[in-house]
Amino acid sequence: MTAASPSGDYRIAHVSLDEETIIWRNADVEQERRVAIFDLIEENSFKPLRSAERGAKGPYRLRLSVQDGRLAMEIRDQADEMLETLLIGLARFRRPIREYFAICDSYYQAIRKATPAEIETIDMARRGIHDHAAELLMERLEGKVETDFYTARRLFTLICVLHIKG
């Protein structure tokens, strides 16, 4: 489900997270957040269908937050005019988020003291969980936003950052 247009309009040009949602994060998590945002801005495919049908053109500004247990994706145009807010239930993401946190914790510990083979094994498991969650996010966005796998993957990383509870 890709949506890249020849003009590159259907993409995210700016992303922010609701800082009030984020209770705590360590240096490892902060680095994950920075990399995910940088990679997302550098290359993504993002077409909010209702806004596009109404003639709204990208690139878009995206703000992510959690409201009442749902992911709120506030989509704005480049002039910072509100286009729409998508609300996506997060119940189906609880387990992947929990698994992702657990494997990331193992990974961060491993890179400090494990063998390269052990680190690679943990990293493969981490990528598998991340990939599965990206596919789930694409499913949940179907009919609302056309995006690609790599954009969904980076968005899942940012969803995880919003769920850190110190």
Describe the structure.
The chain is of the alpha+beta class. It has one domain. The chain is built from 5 helices and 6 strands, in the order βαβαβββααβα. The chain has a 4-stranded mixed beta sheet, covered by helices on one side. It is elongated, with a radius of gyration of 16 Å. It starts with 11 loop residues before the first strand and ends in a 5-residue tail after the last helix. The relative contact order is 0.21.
- As for the number of domains, it is 1
The value of Rg in angstroms is 16 Å
Proportion of strand residues:
15-25%
Uncertain spans: 1-7
* Adjacency order of strands in the biggest sheet: 1-3-4-5
Between the first and last Cα atoms, what is the distance in angstroms?
Answer: 35 Å
Please sum up the structure shown:
The protein has 166 residues and is an alpha+beta fold.
List the helices and strands and how they pair.
Blueprint: E1 12-17, H1 27-42, E2 46-48, H2 49-53, E3 60-67, E4 70-76, E5 82-89, H3 94-113, H4 116-141, E6 145-147, H5 149-161
Parallel strand pairs: 1-3
Antiparallel strand pairs: 2-6, 3-4, 4-5
Helix pairs in contact: 1-5, 3-4, 4-5
Keywords:
single chain, 166 residues, alpha+beta, four-stranded mixed β-sheet, 6 strands, 21% strand, elongated
